[in-house]
Amino acid sequence: MEKNKCKNCNKEIENEIFVLNLWVCPYCNYHHTIDARDRLQITADSNSFNELGKNISSVDFLNFYDIKSYGERLKETRLKASLDDAIIVGDAQIEGNDVALGIMDFGFMGGSMGSVVGEKIKILSNYSIGKNIPLVIFCTSGGARMQEGTISLMQMAKTVSSIGRVKENRIPYITVITNPTSGGVSASFATIADIIIAEPHALFCFAGPRVIKQTIKKNPPPDFGSAERNLKNGQVDMIVNRGDLKDTLANLLRLFRG
Ligand SMILES: [Zn+2]
């Protein structure tokens, strides 16, 4: 029997139990990172998802090179993650409620936000306005995509203004913060939602504890950037276990509709 080791408590979890438990450790409730397709499967009603903005993909317009070229990196990641970029967007139903749904994937270059993530969020926002349906985005990101330089930073303004139009149209906007959500994503569209839900213990901050420590030469508090600390400080509205997320979202969507 295939086994998985919990990244938090190190206990072995049988594969079948791990999957049934939605990749949450049954011993310590650690929520392991999942990819966008798995997230979609456990969130949207079956066969309800229609992808928007398919086949939009980034190009290496700066000829960026670190230890390999950005173009090469994109090609490899696309194959490995079976995704065009770090987010999938589309129209879906959650317990029968229509939503414009976006799901980020940390496995695609650390969920970094480049021009394609920004464009897809714009497409999704416009779709939500056109159909007058709520916008729900699952966030996970290490920040801006450095391989796209300044253009990646501009996506902060682009996503915020796209979502600003959703708000002008008085359409509900909900984000679900998953581990980790940081950098330009936490500083833009992740934090301007009407309701911000987080999974337990998700890291949710601008700069992570390691960077803070290097900068101020002091240890940040042990719960720095955690969903729980963010809840205490008012940055997060509720913390919801993965197993309860679909119901919670459906209840909120019904509430908004009513
Ligand atoms: Zn565990």
Brief characterization of the structure:
This protein is α/β, with parallel strands linked by helices and 258 residues long. It is 38% helix and 18% strand.
Structural account:
The chain has 258 residues and is an alpha/beta fold. The protein is built from nine helices and nine strands. The model has no long low-confidence stretch (mean pLDDT 96). Bound molecules: zinc ion. Residues 6, 8-9, 11, 25, 27-28, 30 line the site of zinc ion (ZN).
Number of helices: 9
CATH topology (level 3) name of the largest domain: 2-enoyl-CoA Hydratase, Chain A, domain 1
Class from helix and strand fractions: alpha/beta
Please identify the top-level CATH class of the largest domain: Alpha Beta
Q: Total number of β-strand segments?
A: 9
How many structural domains can be distinguished in the coordinates? 2
Q: Which second-level CATH architecture of the largest domain applies?
A: Alpha-Beta Complex
Percentage of residues assigned to helices: 25-40%
CATH superfamily of the largest domain: 2-enoyl-CoA Hydratase, Chain A, domain 1
Task: Report the average pLDDT across residues.
Answer: 96
Q: Ligands in the structure? A: zinc ion
Strand ordering within the main sheet:
3-4-5-6-7-8-9
Describe the largest sheet.
7 strands, mixed
Order of secondary-structure elements: EEHHEHEEHEHEHEHHEH
Euclidean distance between termini CA atoms: 47 Å
Which band does the percent of strand residues land in? 15-25%
Shape: globular
Radius of gyration: 18 Å
List low-confidence stretches. Answer: none
